[in-house]
Write a structure and sequence with these properties.
This protein is an alpha/beta fold. The protein is built from nine helices and nine strands.
């Protein structure tokens, strides 16, 4: 690495450290997220024609994570309209790998399936219908992954504590040292319960509470604090996990 590149990275590291310590910015970020959440702000964006339903900052974070870990397989639970699957598939194409994206959902609606299967990147995507924590579904996904060790997992389905914790236990063994596991919508823990009047999840029963319970007994993963610090605005605080030890 050149001296210029090293200097630039050192400046970025200093910037991120400053962000991590700026409590006013953290407070402003929390206020902004609370203000836009009732407007369903993440629904405004698409990736290569499909609704993405993610904050743009988290899309950037996922891109950086994928480029860093260079997976050959990405497993995502929760499909919705398929934008995230298309995003993952496009990133694997950019990596130059003949990669595979596996999408799992308890209810793949016909119109979403049709749109995903008609997309130019469909040949790299495998859809699995079933509860992501059902033993048969987990076994099917593991069979699709096979012996591949360069696997990244993204959990974005049912956001209750018990469901996410069960997903973490089921899919974390697919991820090896140097890989990544991302738990989406941990932000639920930090929002008012009134934001979720018709949902089973809420503060105390959320993806973040599941992540904390998981990390309390699983030392193979750690929170990517640098990612949290530089994003500030994210639906996934404490949700970007680095794998530091093989299964």
């Amino acid at each position: 690495m050149s001296a210029v590149a090293e200097s630039f990275l050192a400046q970025v590291a200093a910037n991120v450290d400053g962000l991590a310590q700026d409590e006013d910015l953290h407070a402003l970020s929390r206020m902004w997220i609370r203000a836009v959440t009732p407007h369903k702000y993440p629904y405004n964006f698409t990736w290569l024609g499909r609704p993405l339903i993610q904050l743009p900052q988290d899309v950037m974070a996922l891109q950086e994570t994928i480029w860093r870990v260079r997976p050959k397989v990405i497993v995502e639970t929760g499909i919705a309209h398929g934008g995230s699957l298309i995003f993952h598939a496009s990133m694997l194409q950019l990596l130059g790998e003949r990669g595979r994206v596996i999408g799992v959902d308890v209810d793949i609606r016909a119109h979403n399936r049709a749109a995903i299967e008609a997309h130019p990147l469909a040949s790299t995507i495998t859809l699995v219908q079933g509860s992501s924590i059902d033993a048969g579904t987990v076994q099917h996904v593991r069979a699709l992954v096979g012996s591949e060790k360069d696997v990244m997992v993204v959990l974005d389905s049912n956001h209750t504590h018990d469901h996410v914790l069960a997903e973490l236990e089921a899919y974390s063994p697919l991820v090896h040292k140097g890989g990544a596991l991302v738990v989406m919508d941990t932000l639920i823990e930090d929002l008012p319960a009134s934001f979720f009047p018709d949902r089973p999840w809420r503060p105390g029963n959320s993806p973040k509470s599941a992540v904390r319970a998981f990390l309390a007994h699983n030392r193979r993963f750690e929170v990517d604090r640098e990612m949290d610090a530089k994003l500030l605005i994210s639906a996934c605080p404490e949700g970007y996990l680095r794998c530091v030890e093989d299964p």
